[in-house]
Design a protein that fits this description.
alpha/beta
Length: 276
């Protein structure tokens, strides 16, 4: 496990089944709590931008501003650049960065945003301090993370209980915190942030198309992604156990009454303006 302050091992990796999920994300379905605070002139930092779909949406909302997307993995930034190019966005750039030590001056950005990032880092409190440091007075730190223990589904399938238990053990073994959503406000307070609005929102998968997509990507991720390798290498599961979990996902996806909800915690923290 990484020492405090180090970035944890990224549990999901960038297998196609993971990117299939990440490229589905938009500002509307993943950052709605932030959108009312965005103004056309703003300068935004999007941390852990991945393939850049949310980043590009944010750039479209600030035509007179600028968005910088950063990620620790250089290869995924090539996908993000392609996303920006496809949309014809000129007010967007990308760079490699670690949220624990951002290479930007104090008070640089109007908004510093991170979606599904803090659950994967070694020291989320330090990360939030860095995000706050590079936020301009009067600006916002915006963070959203899922909470695995709060995910719920129907019908009850023992194989999905096994999946949840396994995923949480693997993620924590990698130095992350899979139940991050409920902890965001606490982490922000520990980081010294004070003007905090805490909310929550869900993704829900229930239609035949949604069930097929969600179950398919998790079934594939369970046996073919770097997560699968980490589960086996860490002694958390055997190949046979992973195949059983993947089969449970496929079983759930075929259930007409199947329903799955992903709870997210959200915090929007305003940095105190300088005294007049």
């Amino acid at each position: 496990m990484p020492k405090p302050g180090e970035t944890a091992v990224y549990t999901h990796g960038h297998h196609e089944s993971v990117l299939r999920s990440h490229t589905w994300r938009t500002a509307a379905n993943s950052a709605a709590y932030l959108l009312g605070s965005i103004k056309p002139h703003m300068k935004i930092l999007d941390i852990g931008c991945g393939p850049g779909t949310i980043t590009a949406d944010l750039a479209a909302l600030v035509p007179d501003g600028q968005v910088t997307g950063v990620d620790r993995t250089p290869d995924v930034l090539d996908l993000a650049r392609a996303t920006a190019a496809e949309r014809g966005l000129a007010n967007i750039d990308f760079a490699v960065a670690d949220v624990h030590a951002l290479d930007y001056p104090d008070d640089t950005f109007c908004v510093v945003h991170a979606h599904q990032v803090l659950q994967h880092v070694g020291d989320p409190v330090r990360a939030l301090r860095e995000m706050h440091r590079v936020t301009a007075p009067g600006g916002f730190v915006a963070v959203r993370d899922s909470d695995y223990a709060a995910m719920t589904w129907y019908p009850v399938l023992p194989g999905l209980d096994d999946w949840l238990d396994l995923y949480r053990r693997v993620a924590r073994g990698n130095g992350g915190e899979p139940d991050a959503g409920r902890r965001l406000k606490s982490w922000a307070l520990a980081a010294g942030l004070r003007d905090i609005t805490a909310t929550s929102a869900t993704w829900t998968f229930s239609t035949p198309q949604e069930r097929a997509w969600w179950s398919g990507l998790w079934a594939e991720r369970t046996v073919a992604s770097s997560y699968a390798g980490l589960a086996v290498q860490g002694g958390h599961a055997t190949d046979g156990e992973l195949r059983a979990v993947a089969d449970a996902w496929r079983d759930w996806g075929e259930r007409e009454d199947g329903w799955f909800a992903v709870l997210h915690g959200e915090i929007l923290c305003r940095k105190e303006p300088r005294p007049a």
